[in-house]
Every structure is written in structure tokens, then in C-alpha cells.
Amino acid sequence: MDKKRVYVTRRIPDEAIELLKKHFDVEINPCDRVLLREELLLKVKGKDAVLCLLTDNIDEEVFEAAGNKCKIFANYGVGHSNIDLATATKHGVIITNTPRVLDDATADLAWTLLMVVSRRIVAADKFTRNGAFESCDPMMFLGREITGKTLGVVGAGRIGFNFAKKAKAFDMKILYTDIIKNNKMEKELGAIFVDKETLLKEADFVSLHIPILPSTIHYIGEKEFSTMKNTSVIVNTCNGSVIDEKALVKALKDGEIWGAGLDVFENEPNIEPELLNMYNVSIVPNISSATMETRTNMGLVAAENIIKVLNGEKPDTCVNTDVLK
């Protein structure tokens, strides 16, 4: 009997690919880039499963191209805003993601950005590499201390909790806000539940860990930046659309906030041009999960979901659960 066919839209760590190859015929995008639209439509045709990335726009046209044979699109990432879930359910296609395995890596990167921005590491690194360092100047690259300051955590889910947990090592006061209280966060970390406005007014550092929903688009805009301390730093590793990027540029230029660390952007892959030349901004290209351990585990979760679905079993991390009924 012919093996079932799986298409992978971009190369991922070998362990996941080898796992899939034990069970199926696997084809992988050979190009080191996102597939063009016409390429994606061609490649999903006749496949039993597709392992896709957040950079792939999976909509009605793609499901139509894949046809009734395709049972699952396994998204390589915890997010799934790139997939039309309602249409997937209508077509009877299971959508899965890779939650939990990237919590540590994402929280780690949020802390990295917080520190890099606060201590002006990128600017100091460039300065030193360019041979400009001659002697110690007591006014050179003055940053902001972290220890003993107030941390504001927006979103108290797994990643938000993980991020806040690391603040204990810096003897920080932890404020958090969410739609509901997190009793574990309060009991174990001493975190204090406050409303959004209070958090923004009092926090020296604000880190965003919320899902992208209609209610969270531009969660931080002109009004919010004007509320924040002019010495504050904001970090975003969740979704670019939760920050109004034009408002962020204005806030940084006008000195309403001190700095920003960004792993995600509102109109990816495009970035507000002025951000690229600002000394008080550190930007990285969606690398919150970019550790060998995490990216491998993400691939293994996606592969296991495909194996289970094509063997007639329920996947571990189905997003559109209505399709399983």
C-alpha cells in the first residue's frame, strides 16, 4: 500500500523530519524562503497532511487546493493567526499547534530583550567593535538598573508566569494584569493583580504576553504610552499587532518611554522604518523560540500530531476542536 504523503513548507530540525519519514513519504520545501502563493497551492495538492509555519497564509483557497484527502495542517508554532480556523472546520481539516514546549525559550528571550535595552548593549557593542573605545567615560552608555524595580506583566498565562518567575532573582516588585486573576502567580511569586492603567503607570518594565484577539489589537497605543513612565521599557514577544507601531515610534521619539525590545512586528515582515535607526530600540526577527531544544520539540509535537491524525487518532493539541466532533 502506498504511503501517505506529507508536505513541509519550510525546513525544520532533522529529528522531526526523520520521525515523519518513518511513517510517510515526506516532501520539504527546498528553498530557504517562504513559498510563493502559487507554489504553496501547487505543493499542498494531493497531500494527506501539511506541516506549515506562521508565515504561510492558510485560507479557503489553500484548503480547496489541498482537497478532501488532506486531514491536518500542523502549524509549527503556538500561534495560529495565519490559519482560517472556521474554514478549516468547514472543510473537516484538523488544525494543531505546538504549545507549552516554547514557554521557557520565549520567557528567556523577553528577559534578554529587557536587559539588552536597559543596558544599551547593542549600541555599546557597535561602539566597541567600531574601535571607538579608548578610555572609560563615566557618562558613556548609561542605562537603567533592573534590580529592585517594578515589573509589569501583561498576560498571566504560561509564558507570562514563566517570565514573572525569573523576576524574583532581581528582587523586583511584580505587577500583573489579565482578564482573570492567577492565584498561583500571587501565591508563589507575590505578584499583585492590578488593572491595565495602574500597571502602566507604576511599572518600570512592561512585558506583553497576551494572545492576539480583536480586543488586543493595539492594546498598547498613544493613550497607553502617555500613561507609562518616561523611564520605562516595553518588551513584546507575543504578537506585533498588540502594539500600535506608529504610536511606539512617536513615544520613543518624544521621550514618553525610554526604550523598547521587539521580537514581533505589526506588519511583518515590514517594520516601521524609523525603528530601524533608533538607538533605544532592540529588534530581533521572531526568535523567541529559536533554541535547538525548543525548535526541535516544536517539530516533534507537530510530527506526532500528524502521525496520530493519519492513523485515525485524536491529536494532542487540536486548535479547532469542533472538527473532532
UniProtKB/TrEMBL annotation:
Highest taxon of the lineage: Bacteria
Family: Belongs to the D-isomer specific 2-hydroxyacid dehydrogenase family.
Keywords per UniProt: Oxidoreductase
Domain D-isomer specific 2-hydroxyacid dehydrogenase catalytic stretches: 6-320
Species of origin: Clostridium frigoris
Higher taxonomy: Bacteria, Bacillati, Bacillota, Clostridia, Eubacteriales
Domain D-isomer specific 2-hydroxyacid dehydrogenase NAD-binding: 112-287
Transmembrane segments: none
Pfam families: 2-Hacid_dh, 2-Hacid_dh_C
Protein name: D-glycerate dehydrogenase
Secretion signal span: none
